[in-house]
Amino acid sequence: MKTSAIAASIFAACAAAGPAPAKRASLPTVSVKGNAFFAGGKRFYIRGVDYQPGGSGANEDPIANTETCKRDVAKFKELGINTIRVYTVDNSANHDECMQMLSDAGIYLALDVNNPLYSINRDSPAKSYNKMYLQSVFATIDAFQKYDNTLAFFSGNEVINNDKNTECAPYVKATDRDMRSYINARGYRKIPVGYSAADVAENRNELAAYMNCGPDGARSDFFAFNDYSWCDPDTFEDTDWSQKAKNFSSYSIPLFLSEYGCKENKRTFNAVSALYDTSKMTPVYSGGLVYEYTEEDGNEGFGLVNANGNSVTDKPDFTALKDAFSKAPAPTGDGGYKTDNKPSECPKKSTHWDVDLNDDELPLTPDGVKEYFDNGAGKAPGLKGGSQEAGANTVKTGPAASGAVTTGSTEGSSGTAGGANAKPSGGAAAGLAPEFMFAPLMCGLVVLVSSVFGGSLIL
Ligand SMILES: *[C@@H]1O[C@H](CO)[C@@H](O)[C@H](O)[C@H]1NC(C)=O
User: Do the Cβ atoms of 335 and 256 come closer than 8 Å?
Assistant: First the structure.
C-alpha cells in the first residue's frame, strides 16, 4: 500500500466516523450575565446543599467515591436540589462517574479549589501564596473544567474570619485573579471564579467591594458569603437579610449564600421562600446552599441526614428543607436581575480594613507560574505534601492585573437537554463541545503524521 493510500484510508475512516458518537446527556453550562447566572438561556438560581460527608476535618474527597456518591445523589434528587458544594477534592483522583451521576440528576458542582494542605494560611498569607500552591489550584481546575456541570470555583473559604485578619484579602484576591488567568490561558470554558466569605459584620461591605473593584483582570466573577443570621422562626423583616439586600442592590456581580441554615431553633428553613422571592431577594441574590447534608461529629445539629455506610436516615431537617424547596420554586422570569450596575469602589484603609496596598495593586503572580499558563499545571499533587511553607515571607507587589491573562476562555455549550444558550462570544470553535472539536483535529493529526513517516510505511 502506498502512503497516499494509507492516508486516504485513514481519512476515509475519519470521515466514516462522521459526527462524533452521541454523547451522554449533559446539562447546559452556567455563565454570568450582569448580577445573575444563566443556564440554557434561563436565569439560574442555586438551590443546594453543602456536601462534606466525614466533616471538615477529614480532608477527604466525597466525589471520588462512587458508592457514597450514588447513595447521596438519590437523596439529592428527593430533596429537589440543583447544586452541591464540595470543600475538598483529590485533584489526582478520577471524578467521571460521580460527576456523570450528578449531571444525570440535574445537579451542578460549586467547588473549593483549596484543601488544608494547599491553601492560603491566614497566619502567614505571603508565605502560603506561592508557585507550589497555585500548581495544586490549577491542577484542580484541570480536573474539573471538562465537566459541563462544574458551576463555579471558590478561590477561598473564610480565609478572613474576623475583624483582625483583613490583611489576608490581597492574597485571596491574587489567587482569584490567577485562577481566571489560568482558565483564560488554557482556553477552558469560562467557569465563574469567586470567593466564599465569612459573614463578618465589621468588614462585610468592604470585602464584597474589594473582590469587585479595580481593573478588569482583578475582579471576581461572583461573590458568596456564609450567613447564619436567619434563625427560624424569623421572617425576612426580622433579620438583617432585608437590609443586606438593600445594601447590595447596586452590586454588579452575582451574589449568593455559600452556606446558610442557622440551627439555634427548630429548623423550618423559612429563609428559602425569601431567597427565591422576586419581591425580596432575587433581584440581588442568586440563591444559596444549606449547611450541610450529613450530620457530623463535632458539628452537631447542622446535618439533614445521618449517613453510615450504605444507610442514610433522614433527620426532620431533611423533610423540612424538602418542603421549603417544594413551596418555593424558582421564579419563571428573570427575577429582576440587573446588567447596568458598576463595579465597586475599593474600600479605604480603616480600623476595620487593614489593607496597605493601593487600590490598583496586588501581590504579583509568583515567578514561574507563567509556565503553567503556557503548558498546563502538570501532575496533580492530590491530598499529599503541602504548600503552605513553600514561599517566602514577603511577596512582590505591583499593578493588580499585571501579567493577568484576561481573554482566551470559551463560552459553554447549551447541553443536550437545554434550550437556546447565550451566543458564543466569537471564534469559530467557541461554544463547540470538546468532542466535536477533537475528532476532526485528531484525524488531521494522524494524516499529517502518517505522511511524514509515510516513506517507511510503504509496503
Ligand atoms: C448596610 O450598609 C451600611 C452603610 O454602608 C452599614 O453601616 C450597615 O452595617 C450595612 N448593613 C448590613 C446589614 O450589612
Answer: no
Tell me how far the alpha carbon of residue 206 lies from the centroid of ligand 1, in angstroms. 10
CA 250 to ligand 1 center in whole angstroms: 13
Please give the helix or strand (H or E) that residue 125 lies within, else none. Answer: helix 125-128
Question: d(Cα 458, Cα 184) in Å, to the nearest integer?
Answer: 43
**Closest approach atom of ligand 1 to CA 247:** 1
Question: According to the model, what pLDDT value does residue 131 have?
Answer: 98
Q: How far apart are CA 235 and CA 230, in angstroms?
A: 8
Radius of gyration (Cα) for the chain, nearest Å? Answer: 23
Taking the CA of residue 205 as reference, the ligand 1 atom at the shortest distance is 14
Among 243, 244, 352, the mutation site with the greatest number of ligand 1 atoms within 8 A of its Cβ is 243
In the block, residue with C-alpha cell 470567593: 195
Domains annotated on the chain, with CATH? 2-18+431-458 (no CATH), 30-399 (3.20.20.80)
Give the residue numbers marked as catalytic.
Answer: 158, 259
Residue whose CB lies within 8 A of the most ligand 1 atoms, among 202, 225, 247, for a mutation test: 247
247 lines ligand 1 (CB under 6 A): yes
Name the H helices within 251-344: 271-275, 316-327
Q: Report the separation in Å between the CA atom of 197 and the middle of ligand 1, taken as the mean of its atom positions.
A: 16
The SS3 call for residue 150 is strand
Indicate the top mutation candidate among 205, 251, 348 to test ligand 1's pocket, ranked by most ligand atoms within 8 A of CB.
205
CA 192 – ligand 1 centroid, Å: 27
Please check whether residue 24 is in contact with residue 433, taking contact to mean a CB–CB distance below 8 angstroms: no
Each residue's pLDDT tens digit, 97-119? 999 999 999 999 999 999 999 99
Please check the confidence at residue 68 and state whether its pLDDT lies above 80.
Answer: yes
Q: For the segment 320-361, what is each residue's pLDDT rounded down to a tens digit?
A: 999 999 999 999 999 999 999 999 999 999 999 999 999 889
Render pLDDT for 27-53 as a digit per residue (tens, 0 to 9): 999 999 999 999 999 999 999 999 999
- For the CA of 204, the closest atom of ligand 1 is 14
How is residue 85 written as a grid cell? Answer: 458544594
Kindly report whether the peptide bond that precedes residue 292 is cis, defined as omega within 30 degrees of 0. yes
